[in-house]
Each structure stands twice: as structure tokens, then as C-alpha cells.
């Protein structure tokens, strides 16, 4: 690795991918080992651990790390970490396995994905988790509901990736080794990571290009995975960003790749988590906008800006952006630090407004590029149902 990219979180990029001889041994023994089927979200977590996206994690959290993360936003060793990465299981499954076992983790199609070196089986307080991670026990919050629906016990232990699952978006998928190699080849010494779960409107483009003024390159890194009903489908996000970048970005200054994980809608704590991930990809800066990873007014608009004050040792520089809008007098996308005109002159730009307008068939009122609009219109229904 080059000298100018940040060290991975925890100073070492994790690699838990089995090499061929070890992989063959495990596959020979797979029918003799206990087996647990995991869902697609957990499968993605496994791959992110194995490929270093979640460095320094080498597996699913043990109880001590879990408690520290929930209550102190740090791992037991003091490294900042704000979202629990855990493997849950119902009690009946846990009765057939024991600490010290090797357990095969299988996806829903029956393929062996990883080997779990089970070090701990422990219980956890779901209400306490929701209060500290999401800041609420409200059952209208999707993260709260997911936690309440989890199994009663958590399994801790390191994992080894046996085989990476089939990925329909493989051509967009870059791991941290690959992104770091690309950044270094392009001699990007400062890289801004941009997180999104929406199709791009002009406000997003304004933020990206403003950041690009001060860094060498931008890594546009949308989340591909489980989202809430009403969010854009993954394929719509990918196609719309391809259309934008092709026409409106200097290709040598922009890199597009996906992050396969679920949205947790944890607001400020998820913003820190997202920053850590982009640090592992090699970014030196991370763009934090209004209501980052928020949902339905659960968090103050700029709570995701304030939380970074608690992490001076994070190792990545947050770039805070105020609300952006189109000013009818300035005739441009701007923000309240730069525009002197009253709010009645402003047209709001937001992912929520964009989704609502498209849902209502009001494409002509959208602040999006025509190429992006044309791309979205290729889908009869671009939203998750």
C-alpha cells in the first residue's frame, strides 16, 4: 500500500478468505459439521468481514465487544465502532451447538459460505440495544423492528470465507484492496467517499463536485442491499448513477463502486459506521450531509454532524454539508451559508422529495439531470414494495 492513503481502521486490513487447500479441506468436512442457514443481510456481513470492509472485525462480535459498542460506541480495545455486527440464532439451534465448535454458515440457496469458529453463545437485551443504537424503542423504526425480530441468542467468533456467493452486481463490486490499488494508481492522495441510497439529484451532484474541488478524487459508493419500503430499487440507483457519471463527471476523477450491506437507519451512529467503512476502502474524507442515515424525523437534521466531535481519533476527515437547495434568485444550487435570499425563494432538494415526486408522476418538477430522469423512467415501478 502507498504512503499517502490512510491506514485501515485498526491499522490492518482484515483478510479472512480461505486459501485453496484450507477451502478444500472444509468442503470435504462440511457434511459432518453443524450448519446454520443465514439470510442475505448476514451473508453480506460475512463477505464484508472477510474482505476487510469491516476491519478490524474478524468475525461476529463476542459479548464484551457487543456491550462496549452498544454502550460506549467503541470496541473493547478502544477503537471507535458504533454498530453491532452480530449473528443471531434461535434457542433451538443453539441447543445443538457448543462453544468451541466449527459451524458452517450456509446461504438460503444451500451454498456453504463461511466457517464460524464459535467462541461464545450469549443472550442480549433487545430493548437496551434499540435505546442505545437507534435512540428509540418506537416500533415504527425499521431498525427497532429488526432487532425485536432477531433470535434470542447471539453467536460470537471469527469467520473464514469458504466461497463468495454469486453476485448479480459483480461488475460494480470493489473490495478495499482493489479500491486502494485504484486510488494509488491514479495517485489520489485525498479521496472523498460519498454514501447514498437514492438516485442522484442536482443537490447530490453539487455536494460531490464541491468536495471534489478540494480532493483528488471522489468514490461514489451507494448501498446495495435491504432497504425500507419506498426506497429506490438497487438496479435503479446503479443505472441512474452510471448515466450521471458518464455525462457529467471527469472519469479520471470519479470511481463508482457499491457497498453491499443493509441500511440500518441508525442516524448519527450509522454515519460514523459509514465513515469507518470508507476509511477501510482508502478514503481520506467522508461526506456527511443533512439527516445522514436518518428516517421519518427520528433524528435532528444535523445530529450526524455533531456526533463526530466524539471521535477525534476516527482517522478519516468528515466533510459536513449544510442543506442545499435551488435558489430562484441566484438561479443555482446553493446553501444557506452562501445564499442571502429568504426561504420563500428556495426549492428544497432531498431524497424524500425526489422519491415522492417520482412516485406521484411529477418528473417535470424534479431537480435531476435529464439523462437520470430518462433512466428512471425505464422502470414502471422504481421503488421497493
Can you characterise this structure?
The protein is α/β, with parallel strands linked by helices. The protein has two domains: 20-161, Sulfate adenylyltransferase, CATH 3.10.400; 172-376, Rossmann fold, CATH 3.40.50.620. It contains 13 helices and 15 strands. The protein has helices spanning 20-29, 40-50, 63-72, 91-94, 126-134, 142-148, 176-185, 202-212, 234-248, 268-281, 303-306, 351-359, 370-376, and strands at 35-37, 59-60, 87-89, 102-106, 112-123, 153-161, 191-196, 217-224, 254-256, 259-260, 285-288, 317-320, 324-327, 332-335, 346-348. Helix 9 packs antiparallel against helix 13. The radius of gyration is 21 Å and the shape is globular. The N and C termini lie far apart (43 Å). The model has no long low-confidence stretch (mean pLDDT 93).
Write the layout of secondary structure elements.
Blueprint: H1 20-29, E1 35-37, H2 40-50, E2 59-60, H3 63-72, E3 87-89, H4 91-94, E4 102-106, E5 112-123, H5 126-134, H6 142-148, E6 153-161, H7 176-185, E7 191-196, H8 202-212, E8 217-224, H9 234-248, E9 254-256, E10 259-260, H10 268-281, E11 285-288, H11 303-306, E12 317-320, E13 324-327, E14 332-335, E15 346-348, H12 351-359, H13 370-376
Helix pairs in contact: 5-6, 9-13
Listing every helix as H and every strand as E from the N terminus to the C terminus, the arrangement reads HEHEHEHEEHHEHEHEHEEHEHEEEEHH
Number of domains: 2
Rounded to an integer in angstroms, the radius of gyration calculated over CA atoms is: 21 Å
As a percent range, the share of strand residues is 15-25%
Main sheet overview: 6 strands, mixed
> Which topology of the largest domain does CATH recognise?
Rossmann fold
Amino acid at each position: 500500500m502507498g504512503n499517502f492513503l490512510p491506514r485501515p481502521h485498526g491499522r490492518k486490513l482484515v483478510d479472512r478468505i480461505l486459501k485453496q487447500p484450507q477451502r478444500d479441506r472444509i468442503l470435504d468436512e462440511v457434511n459432518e459439521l453443524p450448519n446454520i442457514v443465514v439470510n442475505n443481510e448476514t451473508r453480506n456481513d460475512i463477505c464484508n468481514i472477510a474482505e476487510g470492509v469491516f476491519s478490524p472485525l474478524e468475525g461476529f462480535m463476542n459479548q464484551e465487544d457487543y456491550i462496549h459498542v452498544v454502550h460506549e460506541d467503541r470496541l473493547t480495545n478502544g477503537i471507535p465502532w458504533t454498530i453491532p455486527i452480530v449473528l443471531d440464532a434461535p434457542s433451538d439451534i443453539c441447543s445443538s451447538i457448543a462453544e468451541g465448535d466449527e459451524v458452517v454458515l450456509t446461504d438460503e440457496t444451500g451454498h456453504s459460505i463461511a466457517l464460524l469458529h464459535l467462541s461464545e453463545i450469549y443472550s442480549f437485551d433487545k430493548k437496551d440495544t434499540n435505546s442505545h443504537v437507534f435512540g428509540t424503542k418506537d416500533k415504527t423504526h425499521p431498525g427497532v423492528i429488526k432487532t425485536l425480530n432477531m433470535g434470542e441468542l447471539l453467536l460470537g467468533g471469527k469467520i473464514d470465507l469458504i466461497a463468495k456467493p454469486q453476485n448479480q452486481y459483480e461488475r460494480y463490486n470493489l473490495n478495499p484492496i482493489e479500491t486502494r490499488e485504484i486510488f494509488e494508481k491514479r495517485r489520489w492522495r485525498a479521496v472523498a467517499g460519498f454514501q447514498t441510497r437514492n438516485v442522484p439529484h442536482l443537490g447530490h451532484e453539487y455536494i460531490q463536485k464541491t468536495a471534489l474541488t478540494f480532493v483528488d478524487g471522489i468514490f461514489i459508493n451507494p448501498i446495495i442491499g435491504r432497504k425500507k419500503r419506498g426506497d429506490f430499487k438497487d438496479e435503479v440507483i446503479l443505472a441512474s448513477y452510471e448515466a450521471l457519471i458518464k455525462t457529467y463527471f471527469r472519469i479520471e476523477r470519479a470511481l463508482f463502486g457499491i457497498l453491499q450491506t443493509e441500511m440500518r437507519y441508525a442516524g448519527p451512529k450509522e454515519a460514523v459506521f459509514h465513515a469507518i467503512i470508507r476509511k477501510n476502502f482508502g478514503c481520506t474524507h467522508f461526506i456527511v450531509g443533512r439527516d445522514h442515515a436518518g428516517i421519518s424525523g427520528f433524528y435532528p437534521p444535523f445530529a450526524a454532524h455533531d456526533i463526530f466531535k466524539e471521535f477525534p481519533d476516527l482517522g478519516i476527515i468528515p466533510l459536513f454539508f449544510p442543506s442545499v437547495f435551488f435558489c430562484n434568485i441566484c438561479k443555482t444550487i446553493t446553501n444557506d451559508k452562501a445564499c442571502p435570499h429568504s426561504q420563500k425563494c428556495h426549492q428544497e432538494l432531498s431524497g424524500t422529495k425526489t422519491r415522492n415526486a417520482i412516485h406521484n408522476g411529477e418528473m417535470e418538477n424534479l431537480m435531476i439531470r435529464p439523462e437520470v430522469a430518462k433512466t428512471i423512467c425505464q422502470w414502471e415501478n422504481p421503488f421497493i414494495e
